[in-house]
């Protein structure tokens, strides 16, 4: 036994590697496995973005940028947000380039949370938030949205605030949602904003899937409550740039001035080469997401129909690239057991709903960031599995 193994920050013992990653690694060793697990676009980064990065390498633009990121990129990001979502941020002091949306979330949470603070977390939700809250010695207050089609309501916020009051420091919003694909109409966003504005709390609005909204235009909550909002966004999903690690924080200057301190000590700055590619993405490639969105919509419609016919109750996804489906009665109701059994017997890997919190138990998440050929094969394997279900446990 290493004498140092029990001398870490006590909070690290309270967190685990994401169940998404653990499950994906568990099933990846099975020969012939078809995986619809990770939330990564199956498209390649557009060529003009890659060419811009190659040009930057050739020109030796491989030095540190400023802490907040290349000013040209921040200007492009500011224009992008104004054009797409009608929200204005000064590129000089209200835009921060981060190492992906993940670091943007980390820097934001670490900047605002003190030990004992509470933060409202609608659930089910992407599992990347809770561990950071725990590391900050803050307390997540989960709001179960499964009772309302996975849509957070003003009443749910009021109820949580009435119970927890002055201890609440912030609320996390994630829409379009991972894992459900559910998003909000303009009137719903406005109603949430009017409620949140009654309280002195931050709204951390993770809008990383904003460019992948299918049936309605994405509405940023900052349009209605700019002073309290920290917008998280990035290029991983919209431009198929997961490995480039470029994210953004948009917030009022007085908030950015504090968050940038955490950002600087975490990472110094984002990759200079990636930032040059990102500049191309937000200028000549401002609408690069459109052809990908068109294809995702076709996949969504196909899977929604197929899963419904197989007896799954599916939250109608209006954004991102996920289906969140309730396991039909007569089958294994424990989502982890269901997914393991499906993987072992029919070589199809889907993510257990429990990976997204207790409100996700009994559901499975399907990523349709895969070709139609793979999705059709996945449906074939799932149909075969569902024909002769094991005894429910």
Explained architecture:
With 393 residues, this protein is α/β, with parallel strands linked by helices. It folds into 2 domains: 12-44 and 288-386, Aspartate Aminotransferase, domain 1; 47-283, Aspartate Aminotransferase, domain 2 (3-Layer(aba) Sandwich), CATH 3.40.640.10. It has 13 helices and 13 strands. The strands form 3 sheets. It has a 7-stranded mixed beta sheet, sandwiched between helices. Strands 9-10-13-12 form a 4-stranded antiparallel beta sheet. α8 links the parallel β6 and β7 (229-234).
Secondary-structure element pattern, one letter each = HEHHEHEHEHEHEHEEHHHEEHEEEH
Q: What class would the helix/strand composition place it in?
A: alpha/beta
Q: How large is the radius of gyration? A: 21 Å
For this structure, what is the CATH class of the largest domain?
Answer: Alpha Beta
* Largest sheet strand order: 2-8-7-6-5-3-4
Shape by Cα distribution: globular
- CATH level-3 fold name of the largest domain: Aspartate Aminotransferase, domain 2
Number of domains: 2
**How large is the count of helical segments?**
13
Largest sheet: 7 strands, mixed
CATH architecture of the largest domain: 3-Layer(aba) Sandwich
**Sequence stretches where pLDDT stays below 50 over 5 or more residues:** none
Overall pLDDT, averaged? 96
Count of strand segments: 13
- What percent of residues are in strands? 5-15%
Ends apart, CA distance between termini: 39 Å
**Roughly how much helix do the residues carry, as a percent range?**
25-40%
CATH homologous superfamily assignment of the largest domain: Type I PLP-dependent aspartate aminotransferase-like (Major domain)
């Amino acid at each position: 036994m290493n004498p140092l193994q029990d001398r870490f920050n006590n909070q690290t013992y309270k967190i685990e590697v994401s169940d998404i990653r653990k499950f994906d690694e568990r099933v990846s060793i099975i020969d012939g496995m078809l995986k619809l697990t990770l939330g990564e676009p199956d498209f390649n980064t557009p060529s003009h973005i890659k060419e811009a990065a190659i040009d930057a390498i050739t020109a030796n633009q491989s030095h540190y940028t400023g802490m907040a990121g290349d000013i040209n990129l921040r200007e492009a990001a500011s224009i992008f947000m104004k054009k797409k979502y009608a929200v204005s941020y000064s590129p000089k002091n209200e835009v921060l380039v981060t190492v992906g949306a993940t670091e943007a979330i980390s820097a934001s949470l670490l900047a605002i949370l003190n030990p004992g603070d509470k933060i409202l977390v609608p659930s089910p939700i992407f599992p990347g938030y809770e561990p950071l809250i725990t590391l900050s010695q803050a307390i997540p207050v989960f709001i179960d949205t499964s009772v309302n089609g996975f849509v957070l309501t003003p009443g749910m916020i009021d109820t949580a605030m009435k119970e927890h009051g002055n201890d609440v420091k912030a609320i996390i919003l994630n829409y379009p949602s991972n894992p459900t694909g559910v998003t909000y109409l303009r009137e719903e966003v406005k109603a949430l904003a009017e409620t949140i504005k009654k309280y002195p709390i931050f709204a951390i609005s993770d809008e990383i899937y904003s460019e992948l909204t299918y049936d309605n235009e994405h509405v940023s909550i900052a349009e209605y409550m700019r002073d309290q909002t920290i917008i998280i966004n990035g290029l991983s999903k919209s431009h198929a740039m997961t490995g480039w690690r470029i994210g953004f924080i948009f917030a009022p200057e007085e908030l950015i001035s504090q968050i940038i301190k955490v950002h600087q000590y975490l990472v110094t700055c984002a990759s200079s080469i990636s930032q040059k590619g990102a500049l191309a993405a937000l200028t000549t490639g401002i609408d690069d997401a459109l052809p990908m969105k068109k294809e995702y919509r076709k996949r969504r419609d196909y899977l929604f129909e197929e899963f419904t016919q197989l007896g799954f109750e599916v939250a109608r996804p209006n954004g991102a690239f996920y289906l969140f489906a309730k396991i039909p009665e007569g089958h294994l109701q424990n989502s982890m057991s269901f997914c393991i059994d499906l993987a072992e017997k029919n070589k199809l890997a889907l993510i257990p709903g429990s990976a997204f919190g207790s409100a996700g138990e009994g559901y499975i998440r399907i990523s349709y960031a895969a070709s139609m050929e793979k999705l059709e094969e996945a449906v074939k394997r799932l149909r075969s599995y569902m024909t002769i279900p094991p005894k429910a446990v």
